[in-house]
């Protein structure tokens, strides 16, 4: 970083010699750009941060599946397969789905294949359960972390007790009342996988195509585009892509939380980036034109 | 402003990492090394409590399921990886784990090839002009992109034009990905800014 | 010795590979019995192999901390102290929700990790300003698609034109599906080819690198 900064300073010195305003702006210290983006994200929180948004069909279908689970009185599974690195995008999704499920008395089973997210998943389930007066073992269960998701998913399709003997808190699964009569994916109405890794794909290869269940992936926006082929093929019933999808879910369920609160900052962040792209290109072509002119003269 | 000392710890940790934006400095390095240390400690404890204790220790030493000596020995063999003389012992459990990829061969062909080909062929042409265009783009676009990735013959003439169409679709897709990536990165920053402004400073609600 | 070093790992991979391959097509009850046992072993070995990562990290940082010529060796000491501290806290107080272990995760590890990744927002802004150039037709397509999708993600997009979210949705559901599907198929062929090469012993590079 320090070497980069030195280079940057050298570049700045060289550019001062050229004395063109657009070159000077183009070679502006990147810390000015950082300040811009920081302000663009921070300032909207001081205004009215909640903005109106519309839901997309894939978020709506995810929401509808939880509603159907409530009607059919079937539990759901949430794979909390994220860690603090993708917390900002995936945590609002987890919170929204949990709030929706608990508000409709849908029981939830949580699993986790990402080690660094284990405590996060447990804390999230406990906090949201407290809001709705739900009890561990009766209304929700968290099975904790296991490695080797491929074999765990295949075993889950037969009977989850093959891989999971105890829950996260060390209780025998057979002692948890909510798990009585539950065996495998067939007994759950929908399976969610919230992850910024390749795990949503693993769920399809080792779960959905083998055991045929309703499946929704909640992914980071970076990887959202990768999962659209599975939507068109029907292997996935819904997709939540990034914070926007979390905000949409909050909007549909009427429970405003961090997803919607962040949308104003998201808007200004996007506008700033678009502004940077446009200004960067204008300056680049102005510089190119100037250099061509210099060459010709 | 928060009076919870843990929130202060979180805020200071956040600011220490943000200082990297100015330039690399001892505060950032300290935070970075604390993170690595805590992460490994976390990994050890969670693996013990969630995996090794319920699946190995209790069944083997309390319930006497002696068959579990096999994975125990294999786990120990893994540790020979650091020995230049007996390192080959770690290859056995590794070979055992790699063998599971056998299941992935037909599963991957089914999920990512056969079902995708099926979905491409089965696109619906009903419902008006836009669904027809959509179906055609999916059908011909997938073929064009596959041809773009096929280098066993030169991309000239008709093949070149098809490949060009494929590359255009790929560019549109990568552009869309970039758009989503911007959203992802901004979201990550929003998470931290919200923590600082709301949970720590309490200036927004 | 070569038999133990090379042939046995190959035979184990081949045997397990053929067994799991056949299990996909024939989940017979005898096959299931074997699968249940070996899958449990895989989970245990997977958990046990975490120790390899932990030991590797301890070795690296221990060496660094012992190098008196390294001016940064105190950082390595801090890493080791934090690791030992977190491990002891986990084993003494447990890892449940209302423990010191959980507090340290939520209030130290979580802010540190999420802030590290949030730095990417600054870098993408810098890249947008300095590197995203409209130099060709392909770059133009990329730029236009990116701007449409970016606008569609925020309420402003709909305020500019009601068609922007619809176009963005079409881009994701149509050209994006075609492109991603082709990539998916390519990756799948690669996965299958690599798995076959390893299981059939053509690629033995996975069984190397010990003692480092």
Structure keywords:
A: about 300 residues; alpha/beta; 6-stranded parallel beta sheet; C: about 210 residues; mainly alpha; extended
Could you give a quick summary of the protein structure above?
The complex is a heterotrimer of chains A (297), B (205) and C (212). Chain A has helices spanning 2-18, 21-26, 30-42, 57-72, 87-103, 118-131, 149-158, 199-211, 221-224, 228-232, 242-253, 258-261, 263-296; strands at 76-81, 108-112, 140-145, 190-195, 215-219, 238-241.
Describe the structure.
The complex is a heterotrimer of chains A (297), B (205) and C (212). With 297 residues, chain A is α/β, with parallel strands linked by helices. Helices cover 56% and strands 11% of the residues of chain A. In chain A, strands 3-2-1-4-5-6 form a six-stranded parallel beta sheet, sandwiched between helices. In chain A, β4, α8 and β5 (215-219) form a beta-alpha-beta unit. The two termini of chain A are 39 Å apart. The relative contact order of chain A is 0.16. The model of chain A is unreliable at 1-5 (pLDDT under 50). Chain B is 75% helix and 0% strand. The longest helix of chain B is centred in the C-terminal third of the chain and has 44 residues, at 157-200. In chain B, α1 crosses α7 (157-200) and α6 packs across α7. Chain B is built from seven helices and no strands. Chain C is mainly α and 212 residues long. Among the domains of chain C are: 1-93, no CATH class; 97-131. The radius of gyration of chain C is 26 Å and the shape is extended. Chains B and C meet through α1, α2, α3, α4 and α5 of B and α1, α2, α3, α4 and α5 of C.
